[in-house]
Amino acid sequence: MAANAGPLLSKINSPDDLKKLSLQELLPLCDELRQFIIDEVSCNPGHFGASLGVVELTVALHYVLNTPKDLIVWDVGHQAYAHKILTGRKSTFHTNRKMNGLSGFPTRSESEYDPFGVGHSSTSISAALGMSVSDDVRRNNRQVIAVIGDGAMTGGMAFEALNNAGALRSNMTIILNDNRMAISDNSGAMKEYLIDIATSRTYNRVKDDVWRFLGKMNRVGGANAQSMIQKINNGLKSIVMKQSNLFESLNIRYFGPVDGHDVVYLTKILEDLSKIEGPKLLHVQTQKGKGFAAAEKDQTLWHAPAKFNKITGEFIKSKHAKPTPPKYQTVFGETLLELAEMNDKIVGITPAMSAGSSLDIMMKKYPNRIFDVGIAEQHAVTFAAGMATQGMIPFCAIYSTFAQRAYDQIIHDVAIQNLHVVFCVDRAGLVGQDGVTHHGLYDIPAFRAIPNMTLSAPMDEIQMRHLMYTAQLSDVGPFVIRYPRGYGMHLDWKAEFEEIPIGKARLMESHENAKLAVLSYGAVGNSVRYAAKTLRSEGVFIDHYDMRFAKPLDMDVLQEIAKKHTKIITIEDGAITGGFGSAVLESITEIGWHGVLKRLGAPDKLIHHGEQNELREICGYDIKSIEMTIRELVQ
Description:
By secondary structure, the protein is of the alpha/beta class. It contains 24 helices and 17 strands. Helix 19 links the parallel strand 10 (454-456) and strand 11 (479-482). Helix 6 packs parallel to helix 7 (156-168) and helix 13 runs parallel beside helix 19. The longest helix is centred in the middle third of the chain and has 40 residues, at 201-240. The radius of gyration is 27 Å and the shape is globular. The two termini are 45 Å apart. The model has no long low-confidence stretch (mean pLDDT 90).
């Protein structure tokens, strides 16, 4: 059920409606908009804190700009809820992140107000620059805005785009949303640099007077005044700051910092900036979770919370909830700490996902052995490679969808040099409501093609512990452990460590009257177990193998299967094109097998958002689909 909009917000279905309000009416509108987001996300979970933090900025942008002619590119996109609500999607916002509903991120196919699709970070400046330069070529006259969070500013693409923007001198505005947070606290020198800018007492004391003076010059002085303004502005910032301004040194005019929650002041600043030619950056300070006390206090927890009571801030739990096994991420974090206590060569590396990947568990005990490198996946991988050359054993925890961003480094810096880096590929497979930009579907085909790689996937948490233990013992080069988003299978999961022979499968179920063999890779093997139980009651029997390794494959098992069966099903939570099933097909064909092999996995098309079970059904490898496929093949 949709949340109720306040009296002002209820009348706004487009930015044209917004422009009918007076400046002073924008203040209560921001309150209504923030409450609307709280009401909706409390019962339909989504990205919360980031969107609350940019309410005033979003209102000011759409109030001043002529959208959709003027273009706004939202970096990452989980800060764009207010943007969606103001641009004609208020009445459908209750479908956000649900099957066939609104995407949780800006999406070109969803609205003309979304000029660029985003899910990953650090892309907005590059995209906006491309749009701005296109306008130069076509002689279009409009505003192009990139809204980038300070966490995303640590990404290499952001620096590359800044460098190019300063050289091209195209007319674009970069808004740096400085809340000192990504999902967790920001890390790195950029954070300290922005703090230094924001806390320079001299600069902040004189900036308003100087801006007013420069504004008067701009209005009366023409082209010569523009040149003088630039020199005065640059000189001021160089004199009063401890170091030269980074952005100014790249030929990008810097303005700020300004209060990102003063909507009236923001409209005036944006009006002024729209009259200044060339690349410019507005430094806006905001508070993630603004307006909801619990989210302001614990910004990491409230980045994307579960259902909660909007009055008390307490999370809502099922009255009849049974004890649940831990998430795979928790098992990873706890197990890594155990291994680190046993092996002082082990270190953990994450590109800004210390809490999400549960590396924060080890960080509490060994803060000097966990490295959060910021949103910089390429750097994370090569940094890990450098540590590996010195005898360390880096566990690089990286989401599958973000590992794509470091593919060159995985090949060039790790695989070619055959370095002992353990890639813990988190959120592998269908991730659910975050949708097409965040599914971890492509890591198996991508990594399979790289020499020297060992590819593994545990069927449950106990196997995950054994694989992690094996990975730090076995210096076989790059070692991949992929595991899904969500909960495991066992309440009692802390089994004693066992070393697993590299490339060896497990026989999970066998019967002399088995009609076919089912080969599963990873946690999807548990769905096979449930399906097999139902089929046994029907007199249908299978041989089920948990392959554990996609590379190297267990050729002994394949030889055994080839002798016994003429029908095989492979199942994986990943792209079917070039994936685990393809590996089995290639290998078993080479040994002379002739039969029917059916591959189950994600089809060769984009999979959008929905519950994980809904998406598995669409892709044809949920439990019922597995049962049906086995029945059809047996018949």
